[in-house]
Amino acid sequence: MEAIQQYIQNIDLATIIAWGWKILAALLIFIIGRWVAKLVRRSVSKLMAARGLDPMLVAFLGAILYAILLVAVVIAAIGQLGIQTTPLIAVLGAAGLAVGLALQSSLGNFASGVMLVLFRPFTKGDFVEAGGTSGTVDEVGIFTTMLNTPDNRRVIVPNGQITNDTITNYSAHDTRRIDLIIGVDYGDDLKSARATIEKTIKAHDNVLDEPEPVVWVMELADSSVNFAVRPWVASADYWQVRNELLEQLKTELEAAGCTIPFPQRDVHLHEVGKSSEAA
Q1: For the chain: N or C, fewer Cβ within 10 A?
Q2: Entry pTM
Q3: Predicted confidence (pLDDT) per residue in 11-60, tens digit
């Protein structure tokens, strides 16, 4: 305490003013530098977007660029205070190594984010099933990927969880095949049922002519004769067409005299004869 008091007593007004100017200059460097870093990120992002780069890649590279520029600004502000930055950089490097060892999972998520951006198994706007959840890709960040679910929930999934699991991209192709199983009663006319199914799916406006829809008997099940119904549609129309076809097929098959069975069991009761009277 005596040493501290002696140091404070030796501080003159000129020293206080000099330090005040240094602190003010450091704050100005930080504030202006951060603003410039944001401006550079925005300009570079616009340039990359104008070149036709993927929006997901633009956002990812922009975030990394901003982080690098912000670190440079902080080092410049510290240097303005008269602190030697070379030892500081060495200390930060050692601290970064220690933090890296402690946060291996986070660094793994970062590496996975780089892989997602480079190999692009999906892009912004794709509907995917990845990391144990399904949703529309909104953004791939440095450590996490943001998905929007059909019921308007936002799910944040670690990048490492996505790359370590199977990725199903339902938007990768322009067309998708609808797989339906339609059963009719064993007593129905199979030719009539098949003709009704083919007529119904081909009459739908959103069912594609190419590839041609196919209908065939797939299985003689316990309670029904099952038809495999395979129409092709645009990926964006998949769920709407699937739901409409299920309703239309039931209506048209019943109108054609066909029956759509359901599992049932017949129970037969046999009357047991009375036992003869004892003699």
Answers
A1: C
A2: 0.61
A3: 566 666 767 777 888 888 888 888 988 888 888 888 877 877 767 777 77
pLDDT higher than threshold 90 for residue 62: no
List the one residue out of 121, 245, 113, 268 whose CA is nearest residue 180: 245
Backbone angles phi, psi at 109, to 5 degrees: -65, -35
Instruction: Report the C-alpha gap between 139 and 45 in whole angstroms.
Output: 14
| Residue 204 placed within a domain | yes
At position 166, the amino acid (one-letter code) is T
Question: How far is Cα 117 from Cα 248, in angstroms, rounded to an integer?
Answer: 43
> Looking at the structure, do residues 141 and 192 belong to the same domain, yes or no?
no
Amino acid at position 223, single letter = S
Same domain membership, residue 223 and residue 204:
yes
Eight-class DSSP state of 142 = S
The first and second tokens of residue 223, run together, are 């309670």
Nearest CA among 118, 117, 135 for reference residue 126: 135
The answer for residues whose C-beta is within 8 angstroms of residue 101's C-beta and 6 or more apart is none
